[in-house]
């Protein structure tokens, strides 16, 4: 077994590998960019080596720097994690040349599966079922369009070197093909440095089912059952589970055999995943093989009781697989939800900023949290905005669903937008809870998953006001303790007035709503009045924002986190972001020129679609911004005229920068 390994990755997966290595007594080396100097994976590792600036092309994707770091620290092996160089055959070859073990498959297997089109040919020869499509080398756009027309719409354009949901476009009619092909190729070049694409028939209501395979250097290969990853948005997985609902033993055996045949066809060693697209009738087709550990591997670990990273390390060191196929068993059901810094109500737009408050549910036999960040860390625009993976397990699917809902209700994140409330709705959605699964579930359940905004519950205003009052009282008490005269009445925040009762107003805003809470001080608490409804309120607030509330005798727990003027209220499994309005502070109508369109996040302008001076209709695309390796189209907010672009193609823009001078049609 290795004494020391280097992890050529960052964030959650680097922390995950370090955890297993530490348990096995293996020392770890982290690599980091300048932006990650204080990252959690750097803090956790035994050693860490700086490899370059924030941009991945100058740090995490520079093979020579990573090999150099391994040699410098004496690491005997390199774990690539997922993403970055994990499926890069040049990196695997460089490890071999340097005499460093690559904790993954051999170069030949990565090469065989690195191109989706080449992989299809190999799988076809091995007898693995294939989806109808075009996988050829001729990339002439007109030829690709003719092939798509011949296959029949809808079709899916996929980057041959793609993964992680990037470099994919769904085309529903012929006239849209060339525009979407161009967009797909641009994203493929940006993400993978290769614009080669393939075209496949897009199945109606398909399920995405993948099989975890594992091979060793002695020629043994097993499958560790399946995961259902059907719930996706923009081809990126959101919720994963194991085993797949409705899977029969016969179908599982057939898919497992196909996956093992696929792995053996390329001489596979280590952890890999064979992904299938499956019809509702049970037929299935090979999509691709990921020659690495998957993001969703924890659900397999939870139902098998195995540590797949440990298996990787043992196999890479030359040991045989720890178990044979007949020794593997499924126990219970597991779900994984990806907690992201993003805004589902704004098209899942990524969010950046400091994690001002981060409180995950407690980990135990049923709940696991894999994360690469801690409270106070930054979600940077340079990398994937994942906060954590939340994994739950129980004896059956219904109980696992209940566990997930409870764990999501206990998750507290403040400082960045996040998808926790969306994930709660998704888990509770009748289609998902009833296992009516397909890759279009989120789209077809929009009405349930994106409900119209309702008025903020009165209880939220009351809780926010009580927290504000208790925070003031706590500050006064703390100041008294530090003062030479701790009993001075000037420290008190009890609203005392001579021959009068003290009253005041607190004003909060939530979106377009603004609410005034009338406060009357009492000897043992407060009377809070909202819209003419009064309650007697008291409570206790700690320095983490945890609030023990009593409203007219009803007791409950909540959390209220204060950050500048923002008040993040967490109650009954939901979250609200309020603003504390200071009536003495005048706020103008907003920054920027009237009619200006602002960048929703830092990024790079990659295309100007409209022309300056052009009259456009509402919703017309104006420009394309690339951020976090994803394209974001900026559309016209109303009918009007494009007066001027503030940036050109290739320019970097900051969050809130004015992109377009736009004149709304009168």
From TrEMBL:
Query: Which stretches make up the ATP-grasp domain?
Result: 120-317
Q: Which SUPFAM superfamilies match?
A: Glutathione synthetase ATP-binding domain-like, PreATP-grasp domain, Rudiment single hybrid motif, Single hybrid motif
Listed PANTHER family: CARBOXYLASE:PYRUVATE/ACETYL-COA/PROPIONYL-COA CARBOXYLASE (PTHR18866), METHYLCROTONOYL-COA CARBOXYLASE SUBUNIT ALPHA, MITOCHONDRIAL-RELATED (PTHR18866:SF33)
Q: Where is the Biotin carboxylation domain?
A: 1-447
- Taking every annotated instance into account, which residue ranges of this chain make up the domain Lipoyl-binding? 587-663
Which UniProt key words apply to this protein? Answer: ATP-binding, Biotin, Ligase, Nucleotide-binding, Transit peptide
Name this protein carries in UniProt: Acetyl/propionyl/methylcrotonyl-CoA carboxylase subunit alpha
Quote one Gene Ontology molecular function term.
metal ion binding
* Named cofactor requirement(s): biotin
> Which InterPro entries does the entry link to?
ATP-grasp (IPR011761), BC-like_N (IPR005481), Biotin_carboxylase_complex (IPR050856), Biotin_carboxylation_dom (IPR011764), Biotin_COase_C (IPR005482), Biotin_lipoyl (IPR000089), CPAse_ATP-bd (IPR005479), MCC_alpha_BT (IPR048429)
């Amino acid at each position: 077994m290795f004494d020391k390994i280097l992890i050529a990755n960052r964030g959650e997966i680097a922390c995950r590998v370090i955890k297993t290595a530490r348990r096995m007594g293996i020392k770890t080396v982290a690599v980091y960019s300048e932006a990650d100097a204080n990252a959690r994976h750097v803090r956790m590792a035994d050693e860490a080596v700086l490899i370059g600036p924030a941009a991945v092309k100058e740090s995490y994707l520079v093979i020579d720097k990573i090999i150099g770091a391994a040699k410098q620290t004496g690491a005997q092996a390199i774990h690539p994690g997922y993403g970055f160089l994990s499926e890069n055959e040049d990196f695997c070859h460089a490890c071999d040349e340097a005499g460093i073990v690559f904790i993954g498959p051999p170069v030949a297997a990565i090469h065989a599966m690195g191109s989706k089109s080449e992989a299809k040919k190999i799988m076809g020869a091995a007898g693995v079922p294939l989806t109808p499509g075009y996988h050829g080398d001729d990339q002439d756009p007109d030829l690709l369009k003719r092939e798509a027309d011949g296959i029949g719409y809808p079709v899916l354009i996929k980057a041959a070197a793609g993964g992680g949901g990037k470099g994919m476009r769904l085309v529903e009619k012929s006239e849209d093909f060339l525009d979407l092909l161009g967009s797909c190729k641009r994203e493929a070049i940006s993400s993978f440095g290769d614009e080669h694409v393939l075209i496949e028939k897009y199945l109606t209501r398909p399920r995405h089912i993948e099989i975890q395979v594992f091979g060793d250097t002695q020629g043994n290969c097993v499958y560790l059952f399946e995961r259902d990853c059907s719930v996706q948005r923009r081809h990126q997985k959101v919720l994963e589970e194991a085993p797949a609902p409705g899977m029969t033993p016969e179908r599982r055996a057939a898919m497992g055999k196909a996956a093992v045949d696929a792995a053996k066809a390329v001489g596979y060693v280590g952890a890999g995943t064979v992904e299938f697209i499956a019809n509702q009738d049970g037929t299935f087709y090979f999509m691709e093989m990921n020659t690495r550990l998957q993001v969703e591997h924890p659900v397999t670990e939870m139902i098998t009781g195995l540590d797949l990273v440990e298996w990787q390390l043992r196999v890479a060191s030359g040991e045989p697989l720890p178990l044979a196929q007949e020794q593997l068993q499924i126990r219970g059901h597991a779900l994984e939800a990806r907690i992201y810094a993003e805004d589902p109500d704004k098209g899942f737009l990524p969010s950046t900023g400091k994690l001002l408050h981060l409180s995950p549910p407690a980990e135990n036999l049923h709940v696991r949290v894999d994360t690469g960040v801690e409270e106070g860390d930054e979600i940077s625009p340079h990398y994937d905005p994942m906060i954590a993976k939340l994994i739950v397990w129980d004896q059956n699917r219904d109980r696992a669903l209940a566990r997930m809902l409870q764990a999501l209700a206990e998750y507290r994140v403040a400082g960045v937008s996040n998808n926790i409330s969306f994930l709660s709705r998704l888990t509770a959605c009748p289609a998902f809870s009833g296992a009516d699964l397909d890759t279009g579930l989120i789209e077809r359940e929009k009405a349930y998953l994106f409900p119209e905004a309702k008025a903020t519950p009165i209880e939220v205003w009351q809780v926010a006001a009580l927290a504000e009052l208790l925070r003031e009282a706590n500050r006064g008490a703390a100041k008294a303790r530090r003062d030479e005269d701790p009993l001075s009445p000037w420290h008190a925040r009890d609203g005392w007035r001579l021959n009068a009762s003290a009253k005041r107003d607190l004003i909060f805003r939530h979106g377009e709503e603004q609410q005034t809470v009338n406060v009357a001080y009492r000897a043992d608490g407060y009377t809070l009045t909202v819209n003419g409804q009064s309650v007697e309120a008291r409570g206790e607030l700690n320095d983490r924002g945890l609030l023990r509330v009593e409203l007219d005798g009803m007791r409950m727990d909540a959390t209220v986190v204060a950050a500048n003027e923002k008040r993040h209220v967490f109650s009954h499994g939901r979250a609200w972001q309020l603003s504390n309005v200071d009536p003495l502070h005048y706020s103008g109508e907003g920054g920027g020129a009237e009619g200006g369109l602002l960048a929703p996040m830092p990024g790079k302008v990659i295309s100007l679609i409209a022309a300056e001076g052009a009259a456009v209709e509402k919703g017309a695309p104006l420009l394309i911004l690339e951020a976090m390796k994803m394209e974001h189209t900026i559309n016209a907010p109303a009918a009007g005229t494009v007066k001027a672009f503030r940036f050109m193609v290739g320019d970097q823009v900051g969050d809130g920068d004015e992109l377009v001078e736009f004149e709304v049609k009168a």
